[in-house]
Amino acid sequence: MAKERRGDRDVHVRLPPGVDPNVAPGLSWFGSGPAAIEIFDYNCPYCRKAFQSLDAMVAKRKLRLGLMDSPMLSPGSIR
Prior knowledge:
Blueprint: E1 2-6, E2 9-13, E3 28-31, E4 35-40, H1 45-59, E5 64-69
Parallel strand pairs: 4-5
Antiparallel strand pairs: 1-2, 3-5
């Protein structure tokens, strides 16, 4: 189960049954500890900012981070 923020509250999110995040195409894992998956866009300034904090947690071995690139901002994001 994962937790995400929606508005002013936290929401727990589950992957659909039968989806194994360890073998999902396009998902790369780093670190150890509780798991989180970040779906990001290389051109998103908010994604880059969030990655700094997530990378620090991975470095301290406090987080197992799954990264998946998903171009979503503009056609330029897929180049």
